[in-house]
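Morning - adenosine-5'-triphosphate inputs below, output right after.
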Amino acid sequence: MYENRRIGFLFVLPFVLGVLGFKLFPFVMSFALSFTQYDVFSPPEFIGLQNYVELATQDRMFRKSLGVTLLFVVLAVPLRVGFALFIAHVLNFKLRGINFFRSAFYLPSILGGSIAVAVLWRFIFSQHGLVNSLLVRAGFEPILWLADEHYAIWTIVTLFTWQFGSSMVIFLAALQNVPQSLYEAAEIDGASKWQQFTRITVPLITPVIFFNLIMQMVHGFQEFNGPYMVTEGGPLHATYVLSLYIYEECFKYFNLGYGAALSWVMFALIGALSAFSFWSSKYWVFYAGEKEARQ
Amino acid sequence: MAQLSLKKIEKTYPNGFKAVHGVDLEVRDGEFMVFVGPSGCAKSTLLRMVAGLESISGGELAIGGRVVNQLPAKQRGIAMVFQNYALYPHMTVFDNLAFGLKLAGTPRAEIQARVGEAAKLLEMEHLLERYPKQLSGGQAQRVAVGRAIVKRPGVFLFDEPLSNLDAKLRASMRARLTDLHRTLRESGRPSTVVYVTHDQVEAMTMGERICVLKDGTIQQVDTPAVLYERPANAFVAGFIGSPEMNLHAVQVTTDGGALSWGGLTLPLPVSRQALLHSRAGRQVILGLRPEHLGALPTHAGAVPLPGTLRFVENMGSEVFVHADIGGLPFTARIAPDVLGDLAGKNRGDGHVFHLQAAALHLFDADSGVNLCTLH
Amino acid sequence: MAQLSLKKIEKTYPNGFKAVHGVDLEVRDGEFMVFVGPSGCAKSTLLRMVAGLESISGGELAIGGRVVNQLPAKQRGIAMVFQNYALYPHMTVFDNLAFGLKLAGTPRAEIQARVGEAAKLLEMEHLLERYPKQLSGGQAQRVAVGRAIVKRPGVFLFDEPLSNLDAKLRASMRARLTDLHRTLRESGRPSTVVYVTHDQVEAMTMGERICVLKDGTIQQVDTPAVLYERPANAFVAGFIGSPEMNLHAVQVTTDGGALSWGGLTLPLPVSRQALLHSRAGRQVILGLRPEHLGALPTHAGAVPLPGTLRFVENMGSEVFVHADIGGLPFTARIAPDVLGDLAGKNRGDGHVFHLQAAALHLFDADSGVNLCTLH
Amino acid sequence: AEPVTLRFLWWGGGDRHKRTLAAIAAFEARNPGVRIRAEYMGSVGYLEKLTMQMVGGTEPDLMQINWAWLNMFSRHGNGFLDLGTQREALALDEFSDEDLRICTVGGKLNGLPVSYTARIFLWNSASFGRAGLPVPTTWDELFAAGEPFGRALGERAYPIDGEIYDMLLLAQAYVFQQHGSPYVHPSEPRVAMSAAALLDWVKTYKRLFTSRAATPVPYRASLGGAEKPLEQQPDWVVGRWGGTYTWDTVLRSRLSTLDAQQKLDVGPFLTLPGAKNSGMFGRPTALFAISKRTRHPALAARFLNFLLADPGAARLLGLTRGVPSAASAYRVLDEARLLPALELKAYRQIAAQREAGRIDLPSMRFEDARFRRFLREIFELLGYDRISESDAARRLMDDGNALLARIK
Amino acid sequence: MMLYPILWLVGASFKSNAEIFSEIGFWPSRFDIAAYVKGWKTSSEYTFATYFLNSFLIVVPRIVVTVISCVLVAYAFARWEFPGRKFLFSVMVTTIMLPHIILRIPQYLMFKEFGWLDGYLPLIVPSAFATDTFFVFMLVQFLRAIPRDMEEAAIIDGCNPLQLLLYVIVPLLKPAIVSVIVFQFIWTMNDFMGPLIYLSSVEKYPVSLALKMTMGATEEVEWASAIAISVVALIPSVAVFFAAQKHFIEGATSSGIKG
Ligand SMILES: Nc1ncnc2c1ncn2[C@@H]1O[C@H](COP(=O)(O)OP(=O)(O)OP(=O)(O)O)[C@@H](O)[C@H]1O
Ligand SMILES: Nc1ncnc2c1ncn2[C@@H]1O[C@H](COP(=O)(O)OP(=O)(O)OP(=O)(O)O)[C@@H](O)[C@H]1O
Ligand SMILES: [Mg+2]
Ligand SMILES: [Mg+2]
């Protein structure tokens, strides 16, 4: 029945219309803008590839922020996804008061970018903050987290990781689809809880792990709140991620053409990484509902 | 040492349903115990409790002399074949079989060898690279059996492991499993087996003892022969044997020397009369195995009873004859060569059947207890 | 009108495995057709193709005279019981049963009535409020059957619908399903049934015709009696009947009048001799049903053959005797009362068995074709 | 008849909203048939929103903008309605010539200033009291205060605090006084300081930290950067930091979080002996501008005039947008004693310098976002000792010129 | 660590300005709900009752259309075979990847052309066309992990594609759908930029805008009431999460069929 082409298409129709109606024009326009010089207030002026050329050859800031962004993604995404998966797994046990903990773990994500987060993060990472007092107690030198070029990235990485709630919720939902009987079989096979987790749970929810990885990678590349509110890209641009750069180009310096070019470069980057992930997913993602198993 | 000992085991499901009511059972080390009972009588539940998959609501479960109520499944030294297979969908057949061994840190070569051996035993060497969803029902079931076998545990729990196999394959599996059990015992590493089945043949041929369950209580535990010949009560009598025993409530004559129903009178052998003295004029349940009802007077002492033919099922090697005798439905199991003139008769035709009264069972009308085996 | 017609049906799975090789089959309107065959022979695959769940790789499938290769499942007017039940986990048993009716817009009262009826038929009225995960294996299977029954479709497809039931329940289900089929036919609304089973008794008693499959090809389609008595080839002969037919490759004597193996010579009845003329001195396959091998010379014309006892399985109503005769393993099926002195013997003891040579089957050694039924 | 509706957009806090709404009500009462649709919000996102509206041509009739935004929204003076066309409705004589001049781009009056602000010194006199030091009145006293202040109040205590940008302005004030020239030429896109002056600027900036007078850059950054205003800093709240160099308009908010032991005061503007310029850095706070697309220019102008120069409105609005630039409004507040002492003190200090002509109007380019980033970058490097003083001075010259040429 | 921000927020809503910024602890020195009352009243013409109502006027329709459109589209991608499926799927994933900031101006201009400015339509209508591709992708992945057995049974039972979706797929997908609802609720409640750009009239402001409405750059802020009201603003999100969580941990298939 699923072969009926017309019906399938009918179901995607909203999306097709949505893309055409709401995404295509902005997309095309932003792409077009990337070949112009456009300061918002006077009409865009076509300058060919100049934006891209400048970005590739002269823009030190671009290179710097690209490096920062990559570092951030490499650190923060696996941490967030890993953490979310682990906590989801723990929270999936039917224990007393577990509801409370689930909510507690989701709270940071509800807070989003509210003022409390910025204030709190300062309390935690300032020179006399929580982290440092722990360090000092453990006999280490305190670190100027927010002011040290090498450590500042960790403050926003931690913040990003800390707001793992949404990924966690998605994992929690995914865990429900793992049949109980498989855990029983594994238990009989002598698998420890941990082995059940790595050998049964993880493979069976790879579609969702994959989803979270891709999405968090996208979010990681586009992460804005942390660097914007907590470190403001500093110190010495150590946390000056691409999205912050793009934001400033667009809405502080009104250099929309250049901002668009930056965006499309970032887009190409994410796209390439995602394409790679999709390609690799053939080898590690298991779809139980797919007509065909892997060969 | 892996004897099982169940003491007053109870199970209440979270929805309040009490599935097991105080089961007491000893399974000796290396014994092959078969569980039978109607669908829903808690066979799987008991197995799952032994395995440690279902919490025990009451009583004490010991394996090898050690109380394991609180012990996690993986420390109980068991292997289990699940009724629904529970194969790992993301692993090939090979990996499904090898999983337990890998976890136990078995060396690669040994895993290869043991999986190969099991695959051969179960005739599925050509399936090792497949994924579960590429298997037929029977193939999946064999994989589930294989997964238990490769582990060589102290206790095997089988939950209807052959129900999806065809008769031929099932017969060969049956023989192989029995062989395996025997070989292990002879090699000094006996495995205790608890085996749930619905198949009469499996139950009768594989089990050293059979445990008959009903509604979460044990009805009788004994060797197959005893169960067949001396069922403890009408339930066991009706449950063991196929086609099932003819069971009907009938009247004891006032002198206690015969049974009567539908205008017929069935004189009883003297041995049986003694049992019915106290029940003269009351009701008892008559039990008669189909093979003790014949179409011809081939047996001495058989009582002729007139009946009406309902229908005939020809199994090839034997014939099941369904007839009304004195208004009650009876089934007879007759070899094709002793059908006599019954062979040509049709529905509604009359025929005189021959009942071997000496093989008759009698059960209490209320409790169902077998009067013949009472002392 | 719901006859099924399969013409050169083929199925190749996406992984390249060819499961069905050109199957031709006509199932008449209202007929009860049973599919049997070894595990993995494509019974489920065929059923799923008829149902419209699996695409048809080649050939033509017609229901009620209309080619339905491209017709969606729900327009084919079928109901199906799945081998793995496939109950809706989020619905109660009642809703599982009622779902199809609700979709069809059946009035509430009627749904109630039909579900109630099916529940009664399947002895599961007390389960209607449960969720699938609260059911035992057999209970789940009954729900699956019920889901098909309530729909009263033109074609029923049953995939091993009773495999998880105990013998007693299975016997009663068997009778009820047969009854249901008959009632429908008599009421003028015949349902065509295709019924997959591994159970010999089910196959023999329920099927009006049986289709024996092997590796995706049809071996023989005929009534149960014909299949049992005149199997088309050694495969069918071995597959139908339990315990299975003794099948062994043996030598035809140079005069073509007898068979010989392991130093024994078995003279053949004249009727059989004619078949072997051309094969004098060559090999054929001997086929002997267990019931045609006795412990006592009860039958005229039985040929005495010395053997060695291997083991005995006592089924209560009958005994399976396994013995070596001329170095080949044979199984005999003997009523307990005609065991004679065999009853007291042990493994390794000698005994003279009596083979009813007139009941012998002979098959071509290469093709397995039954020589007795060849013309 | 349909009432005429004007849209009016501003940002601000609670008090500003309330008072502005009251003023609007007063205006509506006085002009039946006119409805002012108030569109107000916090400062976060204001620029983004306004930008969208300007791009989309959907901006309100009257809007509050920052002076520095003129350079973006109205580079050639055509971004907003030329108020010169609405002279009848406007009491332009209420504003000083300078005020009008700084709101004029390309000869067109793009808006009218609400108030004027300049950088001043705020001191926590209680802190200095505890440290046993007088509140600094000269540069030398400030530089000298570092060590004893720290000794007395602890190593986290500094006489003056500021974020990088505050500190570079502070140092610029010093150099301005010393050399008589601001960094960027007031009207031309080029660096105005001499190379020597630039070097002095850099040196003075560094001296702020070496003398321990100001919070070190890394430490300050470790507490949260530029967007974390001083009043949210614990060190400020409890008086470990003795003062700050800031706009007079934020005086109230700086004061608002101080705990009960602290006392805020406006100090004299530190001035070098023989200074060539006051060194004070001042400019209009916000402007009110009228959309060039408005359908009711005259009415919008009248409303604008009402807000800035109407005595009644002045009384209603009070100090919510700073001390009014319009003379009559100031008089009303002054007479009604609506000006708190501290504000008044700051105002007088600034007004005195303005009237003396000792505050040069800064170049709008100096406040250009990109230029600010450039400055921050250099001075951050300096604060982290990542660049030598001479290199910094040279970059301020060369890169500064290049950037100024680019942003024009 | 996880709860600290909330405790701090609640504590801070009772503190004085000085306490808020100098004390790391969350225990205030006094309890006084004045800040809540004040925060609720706001300094605008409307109380927070209006802003909450506005938020719900955006959130509720948006959730409804999101769930409907995303489930439909996910169903098509995960189960149906139609021409261009792969291509459209990659288009969908792709649209997630372009930084949204760059789309802001084009989108604004587009909605201006539609005449939708200063209304809720720009915030709701795109969701009706499954443009929240995050959710579509998520549902697709979930669906692909669910075996088809039940669907086959339903097909035999006579389900048409829509009934199949409604009666079988949706219940099985319930955990995922509930998370979609929770996310959409919380994200929309928190969304600041969307309403900021598209809404001009104060009476149409949702909570997220209203919260920051009193944060002028220069004026003094009554932090206690600002924080108090942001605590109140969190309540719906927390409540929704709390109410929903039992659904996304009790999937229909949660323990599957045992027997
Ligand atoms: N999770 C559960 N909640 C409530 N009742 C349950 C649950 N699981 C099983 N039951 C009930 O407990 C009884 C015993 O179930 P069990 O699965 O042990 O039966 P069984 O003997 O294995 O039957 P079958 O031969 O059909 O597999 C049944 O009546 C069943 O409906
Ligand atoms: N999706 C699939 N991909 C590849 N091979 C398959 C797939 N499904 C089934 N097969 C193979 O096709 C053959 C026929 O399978 P089918 O399920 O029809 O067998 P069956 O006759 O029903 O067996 P059983 O009695 O064990 O249920 C088997 O060998 C099986 O392994
Ligand atoms: Mg069971
Ligand atoms: Mg099958």
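Note: The mean pLDDT of chain D is 87.

O.
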